[in-house]
Write a structure and sequence with these properties.
single chain, mainly alpha, Rhopdopsin 7-helix transmembrane proteins, 13 helices, 75% helix, 2% strand, disordered N terminus, transmembrane helix
C-alpha cells in the first residue's frame, strides 16, 4: 500500500543500521564518531591556519578553505543523525527531514566537485601560465568562483527532493544507507520514477561527470607542459605541486564512483556493503583532505607543530 503524501500521514523512513545485536551498536558507532571528530578538528585547523597565515592568502588555499567548510557541513548534516540512532535507537526519519538531508548531501557534493575543478584550473594556470596567474586568479575571482559553485549546486540539485514530493511510497520504507540519498529514496516509491531517474542522471553527468572530465583535461595539459622541461628534477619539482590536489580528487571521486556502482549493480550485495560505502563517501574525504594538505604544505605543518609545542609546554607546567 502506498503512503499518501499529506500533512496528516506523511511517510517516514527507516535508516539502515549495521547488522548485529542492538547492544553492540554503541561500540560499532565509536569508529564513526572518532572519524567525525578527526574530520571536524582537521578542517577547523585548516580554516584557522589559512586565516592566520598571510603566506597562505592565495587562491589555492582559499579553495582549500572552501573544501574544508563543505566537508564540515556535509559531515555535520549526516553523522550526528547516524550516531543518534546507533546510540539512542532513533532509526526513523521523517519525510521532510529526509528531503532536507538529501538536498544538503547532493548539493554540497556538487559544490565540492566544482571547487576541485577550480583547484585543477588554478594548478594549470600556475604551471602553464605562471606570469599571468596572479592577474587571472585574483581574490575577487576566487570569491566569484565560490559563489558560482554554490549557485550551480543549488540549481542542479534542488529539483531532486522536489521531484520526490508528489510520489506515493510503498509499505517497505527501509533505506539501504544510514542517511537519505535521492536514488535510495526514489527506489521506495510506488509510482513511475522515470523523470527522477532521467533528471538525477543528467544532473550527475553535467556536474560531477563534466567536472571529472575537465579535471582530467587540465592534468593532461599540465603533464604536457611538464614534459617540455629539460630535466627530470625540474619535472618532478613542478609536478609535485599537484600531488596534494590529485590525492584530494581521488579521495572524493573514488568513493563517489564506488557508491554509484553499488547502487547500480549491488542489489544482491549484503546490506553491510551499502552502509560502509555510504559512510566512506561521507567521511573519508572530510578526514583525508586536511591530512593530505597538512602533510604536503610546509606552512600548515609548521603551524601545527608550533601549536603542539605550545600545548605540550602548557601541560608540562
Amino acid at each position: 500500500m502506498p503512503f499518501p503524501n499529506s500533512s496528516d500521514l506523511s511517510p517516514s523512513f527507516i535508516l539502515a543500521s549495521i547488522p548485529g545485536p542492538e547492544a553492540a551498536h554503541f561500540w560499532m558507532a565509536i569508529p564513526l564518531c572518532s572519524m567525525y571528530i578527526v574530520a571536524i578538528a582537521g578542517n577547523c585547523m585548516v580554516l584557522f591556519i589559512v586565516k592566520t597565515e598571510p603566506s597562505l592568502h592565495v587562491p589555492m588555499y582559499f579553495f582549500l578553505c572552501m573544501l574544508a567548510a563543505i566537508d564540515l557541513a556535509l559531515s555535520t548534516s549526516t553523522v550526528p543523525r547516524v550516531l543518534s540512532f546507533y546510540w539512542f535507537n532513533t532509526r526513523e526519519i521523517s519525510f521532510g527531514a529526509c528531503l532536507v538531508q538529501m538536498f544538503f548531501i547532493h548539493t554540497l557534493s556538487a559544490i565540492e566537485s566544482t571547487i576541485l575543478l577550480a583547484m585543477a584550473v588554478d594548478r594549470y594556470v600556475a604551471i602553464c601560465h605562471p606570469l599571468r596567474h596572479a592577474a587571472i586568479l585574483t581574490n575577487a575571482t576566487t570569491a566569484k568562483i565560490g559563489l558560482a559553485a554554490m549557485a550551480r549546486g543549488v540549481l542542479f540539485f534542488l529539483p531532486l527532493p522536489l521531484l520526490l514530493l508528489p510520489l506515493p511510497f510503498c509499505s517497505s520504507r527501509v533505506l539501504s544507507h544510514s542517511f537519505c540519498l535521492h536514488q535510495d529514496v526514489m527506489n521506495l516509491a510506488c509510482a513511475n520514477t522515470t523523470p527522477n531517474v532521467v533528471y538525477g542522471l543528467t544532473a550527475i553527468l553535467l556536474v560531477m561527470g563534466l567536472d571529472a572530465l575537465l579535471i582530467c583535461i587540465s592534468y593532461l595539459l599540465i603533464l604536457k607542459a611538464v614534459l617540455r622541461l629539460a630535466s627530470w628534477k625540474e619535472r618532478l619539482k613542478v609536478f609535485s605541486t599537484c600531488i596534494a590536489h590529485i590525492c584530494v580528487v581521488l579521495a572524493f571521486y573514488v568513493p563517489l564512483i564506488g557508491l554509484s556502482v553499488v547502487h547500480r549493480f549491488g542489489r544482491d550485495l549484503a546490506p553491510l556493503v551499502h552502509i560502509i560505502m555510504g559512510n566512506i563517501y561521507i567521511l573519508v574525504p572530510a578526514v583525508l583532505n586536511p591530512i593530505i594538505y597538512g602533510v604536503r604544505t610546509k606552512q600548515i605543518q609548521r603551524r601545527i607543530l608550533n601549536f603542539l609545542h605550545i600545548y605540550n609546554n602548557r601541560t608540562a607546567q
